[in-house]
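[Q] Does anyone have a clean structure-token version of this?
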Amino acid sequence: LDAALNSVVKIFTVSSSPNYVLPWQKKPLRELTGSGFAISDRRILTNAHVVADHSYVMVRKHGSAVKFRAKVQAVGHECDLALLRVDDDDFWEGIEPLELGDIPFLQDSVATVGYPQGGDNICVTRGVVSRVEPVQYIHGGSHLIAIQIDAAVNPGNSGGPAMYNNTVVGVVFQNLSNAENVGYIIPVPVIKHFLSDVEERGRYIGFCGLGLVCQSTENKQLRDHLKMDSKKTGVLVSKVYPLTEVSNYIKKDDVLLAFDGVLIANDGSVTFRNRERISFVHLVTMKREGESAALRVLRDGKEINFNVKLAPVKPLVPNHQFERLPSYYIFAGLVFVPLTLPYLHEYGDDWYNASPRRLCDRTFSKMPKKPGEQFVIMSQVLIDDINAGYERLAELQVKQVNGEKIVNLQHLRRLVEGCKEPYIRFDLDDGRVIVLKYESAKEASLRILQNHRISSPVSTDLL
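[A] Here you go.
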């Protein structure tokens, strides 16, 4: 582990997160630490959540008291990885880049190296590989392959390498809440996918999806109904997302039999290494944007083959909004924002139960039907004589302005500012309605902004 000790650095980040409750403000600066390690071409690999919303980043080598300024080169929030660069040549003296290995096997012993909280010096912890399967990456909300180990992963460990036979087999990134000594590391295939995006395309692109919701076909009666004989296995397509390439080929009630020639079992798994199985979604996520995939489906008892180009699938409600300020538009004290998962996170650690149930359900079930579509809500009412009585209508979706369906927040703004009628009407979810005298509302807008010390009625991205 000597090479690893010399190549692992401590990262010091100063960051400021957006305030989704008051989107015209930012939250106070906060400091956090993490770990990272040197790889080829004088780069440092770490976790995205270590440098998310960063204002300033510094790194320090093992055994040194000197901190060096670091710049964030690329960030992949879905895979929770980031690349840093240090321009100072003095920093790189004595540092050897670590080599990437492969996915370790079950029961292999790995060593995690990093700077967990509780001390300032480097720390080495050993654990055994207990499972390899897709899990939810908490930071980006995606489902990608990960390696579970029985070693403690504490704050500060994030971004450090997991070593096996003198090579990096993963990046430490999260633990299992309410469980002891259950940690997760990002495996090499995910790391290489991220690095290849940056090296070949100059920026992080993302991980592909099919845009399908599938159901297992483990029930024999269901398989008989779908005309699947005893030799056929696969999963039932229960939903096809619009705006995806696959929507031009796959239909609801098709049975997906194989992906790139790999047979899919009735439970949605495919073969993976020695007697292991993994969700077929893993094969999809390992594809690069623009690459083709061969799909074999069963439709009305007949097999059909398609070749489709894959791309990342964007949900209607974004899972994250790092490195950018929230969008907002204020008119007559009505605050309009696009719904995002970070907005719901403002309800606290128990946001799933504490946030409005209607909004929470839409977060996980809706997909865009038009390019650029957003789920726009009225987040709050800045109380004034002009809007008194409407304050209880906050946190409802805005569907129409003066009878026209809105596509996104920018569209809503154009409809409001282009209003030619004496009254302006907002149709909200659940049949609720807001009506204001347009000219009186325009006059009140400036007064409300001044009273609440808000410098602009619109976020910079909408200007």
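[Q] Thanks! Anything notable?
[A] The chain has a mean pLDDT of 94.
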